Amino acid sequence: MKSAAIICNGDFPRKEYPRYLIREADYIICCDAALQTYLKHCQAIFGKERIPNAVIGDMDSLSASYRKRYEGLIIYDHDQETNDQTKAFRLVLDRFKDVSSIHIIGATGKRPEHTIGNLSLLMEYAREYDMEKLGISIDSVYDYGTAFPVTGSTEIHCGKDRKISIISTDNSLKISSEGLVWPTDDVVFDNLWKATLNRSCDDVVKLKFSHKSTALILLD
Q1: Which of 148, 162, 169, 184 can bridge 177 by disulfide, Cβ–Cβ 3.0-4.6 Å?
Q2: At 120, which helix (H) or strand (E)?
Q3: What is the pTM of this model?
């Protein structure tokens, strides 16, 4: 199975791991003006220019010269009820049926509201599209770590002494845990910070959900 990299227009990664995911991706989709940023870094990542498979968005921030030069790649989507990351995500599901992993790069940094919105959308994708049933994993990778959604009880093979945060918007959810320095059993998820800034004390962190729901895991 193949992988797709969605390039958003936040902070472009400087570290090797997110760049490796771009380099190894079978499909690359840029969100609007992220095309310009992506192309500037192609030489450093690939040693040459690699044209993305598609560019999607309302093109309100992509320069006219880039729109003309890459018009054959551009998909105009003027839907104001979704952001460009979601448009790119839906495009991957619709067009690239052989994808088993989606990595979102550049979704964080710059405006904090974009960071919060883009990361929280991972939970929405997992819930609305039943990614587990589709057999597709999704994450957002940045210089400081990785964020990915879970929809129920899970085991995270992260290694000992990893920084880990758990975020959920379901205040009825209870998550009992093993392998964390500070157990989450009594946490009430009524604010985004409630189970953040934790750390693993075992190689495997076990989370048991009280019911099917969604949460966001952030690892360093």
Answers
A1: 184
A2: helix 112-129
A3: 0.95
